[in-house]
Amino acid sequence: DGGITQSPKYLFRKEGQNVTLSCEQNLNHDAMYWYRQDPGQGLRLIYYSQIVNDFQKGDIAEGYSVSREKKESFPLTVTSAQKNPTAFYLCASSIWGDTQYFGPGTRLTVL
Amino acid sequence: AQKITQTQPGMFVQEKEAVTLDCTYDTSDQSYGLFWYKQPSSGEMIFLIYQGSYDEQNATEGRYSLNFQKARKSANLVISASQLGDSAMYFCATGGGTSGSRLTFGEGTQLTVNP
C-alpha cells in the first residue's frame, strides 16, 4: 500500500538536544513538506522540498533543518535553537501543485 | 499572501442532519485551490475535497460538498447525513497561484456529532 510513514509517533527530548524526525513516502511524489501544529491551532509550514537536493524555508523555519537526499525521504531536525519545540509535527507529500497527503504525525515533547 | 478564516471554533450537529462549516479566504492570486481536511483525535490529516478557483461547478465527494462563492471569497464545507465518525477538527486551506503547492491553513472548526 502506498503511503507516508512518520517515526517515531512520540518523542521526548531534553532541552539543548537536537532531535531528528523521520518521514518516508512511497507515493512517488516529488514534493514533500513539514508542518508544525500547536494545540488548538492550524498547521504552519516549516520547510518544503519540490525535488531531490532542493528545499525551501516555509513560514517558521528558524530552529529547524532538513535534507532531501532521496526522493522518498525528508527528515526534519529540530535543533537546540528552536525555543519552543513542543508540538505535533506533520509531514506531507504531493505531486507539485496537487493535493497534499499527510503522514500520521510525530508528537514531540521537550522535558 | 494568502489567508484563511474559520469563524466557528466549535459546531454541534445531530446525527443524520446536515451541517455547514464556514471558510472565507483572502488571496490576490487569480488561480488558486481550496482544500478541506479532517483531523480526528488521532491526529492524522485526511484530505476530503478540493475546489479550483476556475471550476464552475461546486465540488462534491460522497457526503461532502463545497459551497464555493467566489465573489464572497467563501468555500464552505457541507456534510450531509452526519455520522458519529464525523466528529473531528476540520481545516480549510488554500494554495496554488504564486504559492505553488504551499498551503495556508485556517485555525479549524471542532465538529461534534451527537447521537
Span between termini of chain B: 41 Å
Radius of gyration of chain A (Å): 13 Å
Task: Assign the structural class of chain A, choosing from mainly alpha, mainly beta, alpha/beta, alpha+beta, or little secondary structure.
Answer: mainly beta
- Count of separate DSSP helical elements of chain B: 0
| Number of beta strands of chain B | 12
Largest sheet entry of chain A = 7 strands, mixed
Taking pLDDT < 50 over at least 5 consecutive residues as the criterion, the unreliable ranges of chain A are none
Radius of gyration of chain B (Å): 14 Å
Strand segment tally of chain A: 11
Terminal Cα span of chain A: 36 Å
Into which percentage range does the β-strand content of chain B fall?
over 45%
Largest inter-chain interface?
A: A-B, 26 and 21 residues
Biggest sheet descriptor of chain B: 6 strands, mixed
Please outline what is shown here.
With 111 residues, chain A is mainly β.
Notes on the protein architecture:
The complex is a heterodimer of chains A (111) and B (115). In chain A, strands 2, 4, 5, 6, 9, 10 and 11 form a seven-stranded mixed beta sheet that branches. Chain A has a four-stranded antiparallel beta sheet with strand order 1-3-8-7, with no helix packed on it. Chain A has 111 residues and is an all-beta fold. Chain A is built from no helices and eleven strands. Helices cover 0% and strands 47% of the residues of chain A. With 115 residues, chain B is mainly beta. Chain B contains no helices and twelve strands. Chain B has strands at 3-5, 10-14, 19-21, 24-26, 33-39, 46-52, 60-61, 64-69, 74-79, 88-95, 103-105, 109-114. In chain B, the strands form three sheets. In chain B, strands 2, 5, 6, 10, 11 and 12 form a six-stranded mixed beta sheet that branches. A four-stranded antiparallel beta sheet of chain B has the order 3-9-8-7, with no helix packed on it. In chain B, a hairpin with a 4-residue loop joins strand 8 and strand 9 (74-79). Chain B is globular, with a radius of gyration of 14 Å. The chains are: A mainly beta (111), B mainly beta (115). At the A-B interface, strand 5, strand 9 and strand 10 of A face strand 6 of B.
